UniProtKB/TrEMBL annotation, chain A:
GO molecular function, one term: L-ascorbate oxidase activity
Residues annotated as domain Plastocyanin-like: 36-143, 226-315, 429-547
Enzyme class label: oxidoreductase
Lineage top rank: taxon: Bacteria
EC identifiers of the protein: 1.10.3.3
Descriptive protein name: L-ascorbate oxidase
Record flagged with keyword Ion transport: no
Alphabetic keyword roster: Copper, Metal-binding, Oxidoreductase, Signal
Pfam family, one: Cu-oxidase_2
Signal peptide range: 1-24
Keyword DNA repair listed: no
From TrEMBL, chain B:
A Pfam cross-reference name: CopB
InterPro entries: Cu-R_B_prcur
GO molecular function ontology, one term from the record: copper ion binding
Taxonomic superkingdom: Bacteria
Signal peptide span: 1-26
GO BP terms, alphabetized: intracellular copper ion homeostasis
Key words of the record: Signal
Name the record gives this protein: Copper resistance protein B
One of the record's GO cellular component terms: cell outer membrane
Length: 560, 240
């Protein structure tokens, strides 16, 4: 009783503290059944304020956000503010932060806005997010930003599938390759035999067959339409510009399952922000955005002509497309798609001695590099998967990986290694301990797990308030996993010391070990999971409990 | 009557699995699916007309599933069931790629009925062979075994050539159902299917050859029956 009273008092005090810190700004969101119309298909979906994607929520750093969320569905819902640092009861994960928002109920989220940048929000209930429940967040900074721009657009990418999320997972459970229409066929076998001989082809097929894995297993869920701000390629989302203006594009990958390779042919992109945190500017021709990540880039179109925003999926099974245009109704010419789907290699299986990787590497050694550079776009694309093993490969892909990206124009492709924090968020200090998280799964059963244990069977990860924990992600599967820790930042170890970038989502490619460090500075309990919707739902998920630290204020509408 | 008993047992097993699922944590999703590998009209080389099916359905979690497996052969000319077999098994993973299963089987063809207890394994063997291997003990105490192997050859990503093999063996004679000790029958098939609607509906054409073997073939010959047949088949592969 006494404890309860103390807590109530603390809660009241914190409310006062909060209200003196900033001014309250109220936002209203309704969760509705909507229809998504991509031109070719109309699907029943879930959206916010009557549309999917929902609106862009524009918050201001320093204010107290009060967000009233009304559930007009006939099922429980929730909103998670992806990347926002806030009291855990406001984080929006049913079963961890709160119980969810019942049909007809209005839940009021209240939290102080302590950061700026590009983020997003989405439902954390069932498959509402793949079914359309997502929107963007732009937080205006208190201080001047270290880069200039004349106008800005949010560019939200989405893999809209004709099937509902629940149906997709059921299909994957019945038949894991249900949606894989990029499998190797008799024709591929014949062309491989004519290229490499029968013996080598058979032994290569045998290697994959004995593992019962498919080198084409890059996108579990194909058959989607790529959307930019809710518009299909045919519907052509258009952002207007005046020549020579600096245009800031806030890319958000709100997809359920799909990584996109983004380029704007003819324009160099200057990456200035990743996952909401400013980075030292890096000029690139193309970048890969993992599910749930954000990248802000600045482009400066000089010509009075439309430019294409082209986002091809990593497995090349789909794409999103839009235009930057000097005038309404002017559609950019769509660049040729790179139709050669990448293939995983034995390196992606974590086998560094693999015959394929080794062989391709030696046959494609440095001698070919010059010849390669001179090749035109179409030839380059044709060479893609034989280029693996070239020397300047991205260190965040296994050496010889079939997934290593290459820019369409042969230029600079962004790597995690290029990301350096603009201003370190935390002082540098050694981690107090390391926690190993092996990313595990069984594609044939479509079960996904961490350290071989699914969420429902797992104990929470217990962290202590005030420690700096080092997560060691070891990807033992053949798929990339974007791991998202709620509530606290993940400092990605790129080997840049105090300049290591601060992110909310860390992608770990197959066969790779990646480290991130987290200053455990938020009490409460949090979700930690792979952000691929069907991996998360199948068990690649953990609850994180932060023990100790200041008592968590029982905020209004939070845990009573 | 026997169908009723089967349904009753099925209901019992189903309620067991459901209560298991509900006592497990809420995140332990229950999935279900139904599949017809064969759902076809067969036209034989000696004028036989048959309707044949071979399918299964499941409900359950990653850890425990209730599966129905059924196959049958209806002789359309003589209006009788050459074969009518239903199995209910509980199934649980035992390795990365294989499940163990155990349950019951009831055969109710137009001739003689048989109950069986069954154990088996099913899963994916190296090089992508889908394998289902089962042991049966009948109500008369006769043991038998069956091996089903299937391979999907992708001519394209939608045009699929599927060779299949079913091999049956008996450990003792059961004259009443005309099965003799040793390898008793085999069926090989080759079907060319096209995925018309997702993976849900795939029409196919193909050939099937079935033959009784050893003593079982002798029993058939003694009775003046055919012991082998070749069919042209047309049908649908279904997955929902």
């Amino acid at each position: 009783m006494r404890k309860l009273l103390g807590r109530a008092l603390l809660g009241a005090l914190s409310t006062i503290a909060v209200s003196t810190a900033g001014y309250a700004a109220t936002y209203n969101l309704s969760v509705d059944y909507v229809t998504i119309d991509t031109g070719d298909m109309k699907t029943k979906a879930i959206g916010y304020n009557g549309s999917s994607p929902g609106p862009t929520l524009r918050l201001k750093e320093g204010e107290d956000a009060v967000i009233n969320v009304t559930n007009n569905l006939d099922e429980t819902t929730s909103i998670h503010w992806h990347g926002l640092i806030l009291p855990y009861q406001m984080d929006g994960v049913p079963g961890i932060s709160f119980t969810g928002i019942e049909p007809g109920e209005t839940f009021t989220y209240r939290f102080p806005v302590k950061q700026s940048g590009t983020y997003w929000f989405h439902s954390h209930s069932g498959f509402q997010e793949p079914d359309g429940a997502y929107g963007s967040i732009v937080i205006e900074p208190e201080k001047r930003e270290p880069f200039k721009f004349d106008r800005e657009y949010v560019v939200v990418l989405k893999d809209k599938h004709p099937h509902s999320g629940a149906r997709i997972l059921r299909n994957l459970k019945m038949m894991p390759d249900y949606y894989n229409r990029n499998q190797r066929t008799l024709g591929d076998f014949i062309s491989d035999v004519s290229e490499n001989g029968l013996g080598e082809t058979l032994s290569e097929r045998g290697d994959w067959g004995s593992m019962r894995m498919m080198p084409t297993d890059i996108e579990d869920v194909q058959g989607f339409v790529g959307l930019i701000n809710g518009k299909s390629p045919e519907q052509n989302w258009t952002g207007l510009f005046e020549p020579n203006e600096r245009v800031r594009l806030r890319f958000i990958n709100a997809s359920a399952m799909t990584y996109f390779d983004v380029r704007i042919p003819g324009l160099e992109m200057t990456v200035v922000q990743a996952d909401g945190n400013n980075v030292q500017p890096v000029k690139v021709d193309e970048f890969r955005i993992s599910v749930a990540e954000t990248y802000d880039v600045i482009v400066q179109p000089t010509a009075e002509k439309p430019y294409a925003i082209m986002a091809e999926s990593m497995g090349r099974s789909g794409y999103a497309f839009g235009s930057l245009s000097p005038q309404e109704g002017l559609k950019a010419e769509m660049p040729a798609r790179r139709m050669d789907a990448p293939l995983l290699t034995m390196a992606d299986m974590g086998m560094d001695h693999g015959s394929m990787a080794g062989m391709d590497h030696s046959s494609m050694g440095s001698g070919n590099e010059n010849g390669m550079a001179g090749m035109d776009h179409s030839n380059m694309a044709g060479m893609d998967h034989s280029q693996m093993g070239m020397s300047k490969d991205d260190p965040f892909y296994a050496a010889g990986s079939g997934l290593t990206p290459k820019a369409a124009n042969g230029g600079k492709f962004l790597s995690y290694a290029d990301l350096k924090a603009q201003k370190p968020l935390y002082p540098e200090r050694p981690a107090t301990r390391e926690i190993e998280l092996r990313l595990t799964g069984n594609m044939e059963r479509y079960t996904w797990s961490i350290n071989g244990v699914k969420y429902e069977d797992a104990e929470p990860i217990r962290l202590k308030y005030g420690e700096r924990v080092r997560f060691k992600f070891v990807n033992e599967t053949m798929m990339s996993h974007p791991m998202h820790l709620h509530g606290m930042w993940s400092i990605l170890d790129t080997g840049n010391g105090k300049w290591d970038p601060v992110k909310h989502t860390i992608n770990i490619n197959p066969g790779m070990t990646v480290y991130s460090e987290t200053e455990v500075d938020e009490p409460g309990q949090w979700a930690f999971h792979c952000h691929l919707s069907y991996h998360m739902a199948s068990g690649m998920f953990r609850k994180v409990v932060v023990e100790g630290g200041p008592a968590v204020a029982a905020l209004e509408n939070g845990v009573q | 009557m026997k169908t009723l008993t089967l349904a009753a047992i099925g209901g019992g097993v189903l309620s067991t699995i459901l209560s298991f699922s509900f006592t497990a944590k809420a995140d332990n999703h229950i999935f279900y699916g139904i599949q017809m590998e064969q759902f076809e009209y067969r036209s034989g080389d000696e004028g036989e007309n048959l309707f044949v099916w071979d399918g299964d359905a499941f409900v359950g979690t990653d850890e425990l599933k209730l599966r129905w497996q059924g196959e049958g052969e209806r002789d359309l000319k003589n209006d009788l069931y050459e074969n009518f077999e239903n199995r209910l098994v509980l199934q649980t993973p035992i390795s990365d790629f294989f499940d163990a299963k155990a349950g019951i089987r009831l055969d109710t063809p137009s001739t003689t009925d048989r109950w069986y207890g069954t154990v088996g394994i099913m899963g994916l063997a190296p090089q992508w062979f889908e394998v289902d291997a089962d042991l049966f003990v009948s109500e008369t105490g006769d043991g038998s075994a069956r091996l089903d192997v299937e391979y999907e050859g992708l001519l394209t990503n939608r045009l699929i050539l599927t060779p299949s093999l079913e091999l049956n063996a008996a450990f003792s004679d059961d004259r009443e159902i005309e099965v003799g000790r040793g390898f008793s029958s085999a069926e090989i098939g080759l079907r060319l299917s096209y995925d018309l609607i997702d993976r849900a509906v795939a029409p196919y054409i193909g050939v099937a050859y079935e033959r009784k073997l050893g003593k079982t073939a002798d029993f058939a010959k003694d009775d003046g029956e055919d012991y082998e047949a070749t069919y042209l088949v047309t049908g649908l592969r279904l997955l929902f």
